[in-house]
Amino acid sequence: MKHRGGKVHIAGRPFKGIKSTVDWKRNNFVMIVSRAYQSILFVLVIVMAGAEVQENLSPNCKQFLYMGTLPRGLQQLSFKKICQFYEGKPRFVTLFDTFSHIPIYSAYTFKRSDGSKKVDVPWMYEPQLSTVSDSREMQPFPSENLHKSFEDAQAVLEDYSNSVMFERGQLNPDEHQADIHDKASTYTLTNVVPQVREFNIGHWKDHQHMIRRRLNNYCRGTAYIVTGVTTSGHSIRRHNINRLGIPTYLWSAYCCIDFDHNAPFSERSKFPVFAAHGLNDREDNKVQEMTVRQLEDFLKKVTYVDSSFQIFYDNCVALNSAMP
């Protein structure tokens, strides 16, 4: 912005919207407003470009949530909602913490399966957590050093490479999916947390197997699952920088309102909704099953959820029915 002959010029041209008598303070105010307007436009461009990093989930992403409703009572500025797209379709939903670079939870629908794993998938990342991208899908990690542009907001492979104690633990495990693309979509670092190896391959794995068998056998309709973590401030560091929040507990809950009422009582009593948690440690890491309300009360004591925290809408009570 320049003054020429008593007139205001911007980029070499007279700015006709302001009279030549406007004083210096007014000119600076207009310039600040103009810059703020440009910043707003830039933010809007980012939001419009990011189809899967969403402030409000689109209807095709709400299909993975019971009654289309996210768990309530989780509010942090660093949390981002991700509708996880793979091969042109939404696959599940993740609430991701861009500060600790781990998911807070992943919400998905269970698919009956034999529990087989898809092991030939490269690990992927979410491009739009950090950059404006034409693609709304998770992408395989690029060649070395190109990840520098997005590691500020999410995990990269190097964060796990030198860790002896921790493995990449999936919140939405591939064994709870049937379609090969649904299985493949679980191999994104926005769906994994640092999990102690002994816990990952021990009690937690056994729990995932048990839930798969239970839902395979007794859930007749859609089963909605939310699996998440609590953290306590400990981190995996790389180059003396905190990179990954380390979960203290892993927790999980499922909701299936259409189930086999002739199932054995030991199984029938765990419908329509049940939950569990386990300590992410080498010892004392047995997974404890409990009601969803007991899990919610537990999480209110040990993590950042507020008093209104609820995993499933109306605690997974079917319309016109009562809790069993």
UniProtKB/TrEMBL annotation:
Residues spanning the signal sequence: none
Keyword flag Transmembrane helix: yes
Domain DNA/RNA non-specific endonuclease/pyrophosphatase/phosphodiesterase: residue ranges: 88-305
Limits of the ENPP1-3/EXOG-like endonuclease/phosphodiesterase domain: 89-305
Keyword presence, Translocase: no
Assigned keywords, A-Z: Membrane, Transmembrane, Transmembrane helix
Pfam families named in the record: Endonuclease_NS
GO molecular function list: hydrolase activity; metal ion binding; nucleic acid binding
Transmembrane segments: 29-51
InterPro entries in alphabetical order: DNA/RNA_non-sp_Endonuclease_sf, Endo_G_ENPP1-like_dom, ENDOD1, ENPP1-3/EXOG-like_nuc-like, His-Me_finger_sf
Protein name: Endonuclease domain-containing 1 protein-like
Organism for this UniProt entry: Pogonophryne albipinna
